[in-house]
Amino acid sequence: MSKQDQLQGEGDYKSGKKFQQDEREFVKSGGVEKAAHEAEPKSDQEAMDMLRAEKIGRSHSKGDDASAKQGAKDKK
User: Which of 13, 35, 52, 64 places its Cα 20 to 30 Å from the Cα of 41?
Assistant: First the structure.
């Protein structure tokens, strides 16, 4: 078994490459709009729960990812 074949775990190259390929195929399939619509809150209560969960998640964050900020700027 080569050293590359042994490389597994979080962030391993093989899994990362497969994820990126699957993600590209999903975007090309046109399923993004449908998935976004299905993810919308179904009620005001669910919307409030989602906002509360987001707030809790952000409170654990060490801050915004600089690369995410750059990506947002590139999209403008």
Answer: 64
Contact by Cβ (8 Å): 20, 28: no
Maximum Cα interatomic distance, the chain, rounded to a whole number of Å = 54
> Which residues neighbour 41 within 8 Å (Cβ) at sequence distance 6 or greater?
47, 49, 50
Each residue's pLDDT tens digit, 24-49:
999 999 999 999 999 999 999 999 99
d(CA 43, CA 36) in angstroms, rounded, equals: 15
Is the separation of the CB atoms in 13 and 7 below 8 Å? yes
Helical (H) or strand (E) element with 44: helix 44-59
Going by C-beta distance under 8 Å and a sequence separation of 6 or more, which residues neighbour residue 49? 41
